[in-house]
Predict the structure.
Amino acid sequence: MTRKAHSPLDSQRPPSVQSPLETLVAQADSLAGVQQLVVGCERCPRLREHCLATARDKRRAYRDWTYWGKPVPAWGDSQAELLLIGLAPGAHGANRTGRMFTGDRSGDFLYRALWEAGLASQPEGTHADDGQMLRRVWMTASARCAPPDNRPSPKELQQCQPFLRRELQLLPRLRLVVALGGIAAVSYLRLLQEQGELRTLARFPFGHGRLYQFPKAAPLLCCYHPSQQNTSTGRLTAAMLADLFRQAATWLDDPAFPHPGVTSLHLQEQAKGRPR
Ligand code: SF4
């Protein structure tokens, strides 16, 4: 049984102006190589200072921890079919543990939903050596350093884009991108725009459960970010998140996905017609 694979971004096409780091990232020949470059990155002084200050000052509950404090690399299954894009590391979560979505409430919510969908080996992610494994999923973010107030600036997001660009190129089996929040969706859409897959982002408004398809690139499935702001208000429930990832896993099991003609529908509308 063959599955449709997407190579959404042309690795031979260089961005117009490249910094030395961008050149190194573009030349990285593996996801591990990208991870290494992420960890050593110092491009955004404001974010680096914030991460180090948070690691030094610590939260009282974690005063016995040695915080990671460095940029947090993406992680997961190097043969992933699903790319999961978050916003940025949590100051006392991934910035503490060194693994994305690990050690805070957003991660608790997310890993449980992935586990329920069969995309993670454990319902929790507490620390980098907890035995958690992602299945079919590569977990990344729009920015790799924890930003003050969870808000990276447009320039900081742009400076972090080369890592996402290269990860997309290094995932040959990719079939679906799940964006956690509007900023993550825009990060992916901007890369598609750069590659000529779309002209304007205005045709792709963010909405939980919306699925967008493109001529060559992997489809985009939008999902509310599992931030405390969303989960504590009920905007995003555990059931909603688990449903979305179950749907995503069903699509990955379907060799005919993405179905032609489906361009932008809400998850529930999609679910009505999904193969059983
Ligand atoms: S946010 Fe990205 S580009 Fe900026 S310093 Fe961190 S890793 Fe580097």
Q: What stands out?
A: The chain has a mean pLDDT of 91.
